[in-house]
Write a structure and sequence with these properties.
Organism: Thermoactinomyces mirandus
CATH architecture: 6 Propeller
Pfam families: DUF5050
Radius of gyration: 18 Å
CATH superfamily: TolB, C-terminal domain
Keywords: Signal
Protein name: PD40 domain-containing protein
Strand content: over 45%
Number of strands: 24
CATH class: Mainly Beta
Number of helices: 1
Order of helices and strands: HEEEEEEEEEEEEEEEEEEEEEEEE
Strand order of the largest sheet: 3-2-1-24
InterPro entries: 6-blade_b-propeller_TolB-like, LRP1-like_beta_prop
Length: about 325
C-alpha cells in the first residue's frame, strides 16, 4: 500500500499522529447519518445525511468522541479538551491547553466518567468529566511521545502508540491507572511504525496501521496470540485511517485520491475484517484537516450518536 512514510519526528510529528485517527464508524442501519470533522474553508464538526447528501456544522473543533450513553461528545478546541451535548450545544472546557502546549485524541471511558487524552508534553492523561480533575498516567522520557490512547471495552486497559527518539512508533498497553506499561509491537522489527490502535468491541483484537519504507497498511492483531494480519496487503490505493464497525466484523477506512495537480479528496470504504468485500460509501470530502466520524440517528439528532472513533488524515 503506497503512502508517505509515517516516521514521527519531534513534538509536531508525534502530535500529528496523536490527534489521532478517528475513523469512519459503521452505521447500524441505512437511516443513520454520519458526524465528522474537517473542511478546508470552515473546519469543524459536521453532520452528513447520506440520503440528502447535505452537511450541517454543529460546532467547531476536531477529534470528536461520543459518550457511552450517547448524550455527550468530547472533542478538541482551542488546544483543549471540551465536552458538550451531542448536538454541540452547551460546551464546557475541561482542560486548559494553551499553545505551544495542546491536547489531542480525547476518548470516553466505557463508564462515561473519564476522558483519556494525549498532551504535547508526550504523556497520556485522564480528566474527570464531573469535576475536571486531570491525572497524568505516564512519564515519558525526553524525546518520547505517547499518543492516540484507546480504552479496552471493560475499561481496564488503555492502548496507545509511542514514538521513540528515532521517530518510529510502536504500540503499548497499560492498566487504566497507568501501571504495567507493556510494549506489544516493534520488538523484533526496526524502521517501521505502528500507530492508531483501536480495540474491537469484544476486546479480543486490535486494529492498527503500520508504515514501513513508504508503504502503509491496516492490520488486525489477535491479542491472545499477538499475531497480526495485514488486511490491505493487496490494495492498490493508499489508505489513511481505519476503525472497527460496532459489531467488530467490519473495518471502515479512508482512501485519499488526487483530483488534480494540487487537490486531493477522501473516499470512505467498508470491508470485512479479513480485507474482503470492499464497499464505497457515498460521502466524498476534501482532503483537509483531521476528520472524525460517527453515526447519528437523524430522528433523535440531539442524542443516540453511536460510538465515535477518531482518526486523522495526514
Amino acid at each position: 500500500m503506497k503512502k508517505v512514510s509515517r516516521k514521527v519526528t519531534g513534538v509536531v510529528g508525534a502530535l500529528i499522529l496523536a490527534t489521532s485517527l478517528s475513523l469512519p464508524v459503521y452505521a447500524k442501519d441505512e437511516a443513520k447519518s454520519i458526524l465528522f470533522s474537517g473542511g478546508l474553508d470552515k473546519p469543524g464538526i459536521y453532520v452528513f445525511d447520506p440520503d440528502t447528501l447535505k452537511t450541517k456544522q454543529i460546532t467547531s473543533g476536531s477529534s470528536v468522541d461520543l459518550s457511552p450513553d450517547g448524550d455527550l461528545i468530547t472533542y478538541i478546541n482551542n488546544d483543549s479538551v471540551y465536552m458538550a451535548n451531542s448536538n454541540g450545544s452547551e460546551p464546557v472546557r475541561l482542560t486548559n491547553g494553551k499553545f505551544p502546549e495542546f491536547d489531542s485524541s480525547p476518548r470516553w471511558s466505557p463508564d462515561g466518567k473519564k476522558i483519556v487524552f494525549a498532551r504535547s508534553d508526550g504523556n497520556i492523561y485522564t480528566v474527570d468529566a464531573a469535576n475536571r480533575k486531570v491525572t497524568r498516567l505516564t512519564n515519558a522520557e525526553d524525546g518520547v511521545y505517547h499518543s492516540s490512547p484507546d480504552w479496552s471495552p471493560d475499561g481496564e486497559k488503555i492502548v496507545f502508540h509511542s514514538s521513540d527518539k528515532n521517530g518510529y512508533a510502536d504500540l503499548y498497553m497499560m492498566n487504566s491507572d497507568g501501571s504495567n506499561i507493556t510494549q506489544i509491537t516493534g520488538k523484533n522489527e526496526k524502521n517501521s511504525s505502528e500507530y492508531a490502535p483501536h480495540f474491537s468491541s469484544d476486546g479480543k483484537y486490535l486494529l492498527f496501521e503500520k508504515s514501513k519504507e513508504g508503504e502503509t497498511d491496516i492490520y488486525v492483531m489477535n491479542l491472545a496470540t499477538k499475531q497480526a494480519q495485514n488486511i490491505t496487503k493487496n490494495f492498490d490505493q493508499p489508505v489513511s485511517g481505519s476503525i472497527w464497525s460496532e459489531d467488530g466484523n467490519k473495518v471502515l477506512y479512508t482512501v485519499n485520491e488526487e483530483k488534480g495537480k494540487e487537490e486531493e479528496s477522501s473516499r470512505f470504504y467498508i470491508m470485512n475484517k479479513d480485507g474482503s468485500n470492499k464497499t464505497l460509501l457515498k460521502l466524498q470530502v476534501d482532503f483537509a484537516t483531521p476528520s472524525e466520524w460517527q453515526s447519528l440517528n437523524p430522528e433523535k439528532e440531539d442524542n443516540f450518536l453511536n460510538k465515535v472513533k477518531n482518526f486523522l488524515f495526514e
